[in-house]
Design goal:
The chain is an alpha+beta fold and about 375 residues long. The protein has three domains: about 110 residues; about 70 residues, Helix Hairpins; about 150 residues, Heat Shock Protein 90 (2-Layer Sandwich). Helix content is about 55%, strand content about 10%. Strand 4 and strand 5 form a beta hairpin. It is elongated and about 130 Å long. About 20% of the residues are buried.
Length: about 375
């Protein structure tokens, strides 16, 4: 008997039959004993001239009362009624046991079917959930897990596609240039070597970003918090990006209050956060636009906001903007965006500091990325 349904059915049926049989046996014994006492008392109260059937038996001791036809018929009907009711109760118990076993095992069957689909690499069908008991809660939890697994699988495929695309482009450039040099089609001039060097730097940056991202999401990224002036880091980052803003024709404005509290953060990682946000704003802001950087301190937190006047982010892309290699531009042209890892790294680094990052965007009006960092990290505390 391997089926859970068969085991539950056998257990319920056994309990129902055993309970009704014991109840019937106890009821039969009690009824007979009570009826015997009733007859004995009646015989004892019968006068000497009474009916013969009701007279006491001669002799000093009486082993059992003498039942007449009426008494025997009455006892027989009581016994038949008890065992008839027992048979009906046992039958109903069997039906209820089968119904309960089917009701309990049915969602488990659906869960097993869905789990087998996931194990085979197929999309899991949604589990039918009824009621609010533990089995229903298990079904809801399984549906949430299956949905999350589907999302993770889609993200994994997009991640592999993004890695393949981003690695293939610089490698193709390097390979093509080197083959042209070997065939003496292109001379190894300083400009050609500089181009190869830039492609290798791009590969190195991509690999470093992937490593940092994987470590941050695995909770293994080593932070070195120290008392840091976040305003100075923001000022240095904006100054480093000033030539790029000037070349693109984009204005940058910094609004930072004086006397902001120092924060216990990793200065290198905070600098990386600010640089990624500035780089993202610069890429999506057209010439003549403006990038505004706001820095405030309140309620034991430091809030950094980077706003641009670019084309904004569509509502369908906004929930996925922090995912790996996600770009609203499906063509993934290098001129319209980076590798698609910058914002994912920002989110991972901010969360590593026990902070949070949100984005607000209006298509055609620009986007605002807001990073909130605690003044004192949990490690420092």
């Amino acid at each position: 008997m391997r089926s859970l349904r068969a085991k539950l059915s056998a257990a319920f049926i056994g309990i129902a039959v055993l309970t009704t049989a014991l109840s019937a046996t106890f009821a039969t014994y009690t009824a007979r004993h009570t009826f015997t006492q009733y007859v004995e008392r009646r015989e004892a109260a019968t006068p000497p001239g009474g009916p013969p059937a009701m007279r006491p038996a001669p002799g000093p001791a009486r082993m059992a009362p003498r039942f007449g036809p009426r008494e025997r018929l009455f006892a027989q009907r009581i016994r038949d009624a008890i065992w008839g009711g027992t048979a009906v109760a046992a039958g109903l118990g069997v039906l209820v046991a089968l119904w309960l076993a089917r009701r309990i095992v049915r969602p488990v069957t659906f869960l097993t079917r869905a789990a087998r689909a996931i194990a085979a690499g197929r999309p899991a069908p949604p589990v039918l959930v009824e009621g609010r008991d533990e089995i229903a809660e298990l079904g809801r939890a399984f549906n949430r897990m299956a949905t999350q697994l589907a999302l993770d699988e889609a993200q994994r495929r997009r991640l592999f596609a993004g890695i393949t695309h981003e690695l293939r482009t610089p490698l193709a450039v390097i390979q093509g240039t080197l083959e042209a040099m070997l065939d003496h089609v292109v001379e190894p001039t300083p400009d050609q070597i500089t181009g190869l060097h830039s492609q290798t730097l791009l590969l190195r940056r991509l690999i470093t970003d992937l490593r940092d991202l994987s470590l941050a999401q695995a909770g293994q990224l080593q932070l070195h918090p120290e008392t840091t002036d976040v305003a100075a880091i923001v000022s240095d980052a904006v100054e480093a990006f000033a030539p790029s803003f000037h070349d693109r024709g984009v204005a940058v404005e910094v609004d930072a209050l004086q006397g902001l509290p120092s924060a216990e953060v990793d200065p290198d990682r905070v600098r990386q956060i600010v640089q990624n946000l500035l780089d993202n704003a610069l890429r999506y802001t057209p010439p003549g636009g403006t990038v505004r950087v706001h820095l405030r301190g309140q309620d034991g937190e430091i809030r950094l906001a980077v706003a641009d006047t670019g084309r904004g982010i569509g509502p369908e892309d906004l929930p996925h903007i922090f995912e790996h290699f996600y770009r609203a531009d499906r063509s993934r042209a290098r001129s319209s965006g980076g590798t698609g890892l910058g914002l994912a790294i920002v989110k991972s680094l901010v969360e590593a500091h026990r902070g949070r990052v949100i984005v607000e965007s209006t298509p055609g009006a620009g986007s605002t990325f807001t990073v909130t960092l605690p003044v004192r990290s949990e490690e420092a505390a």
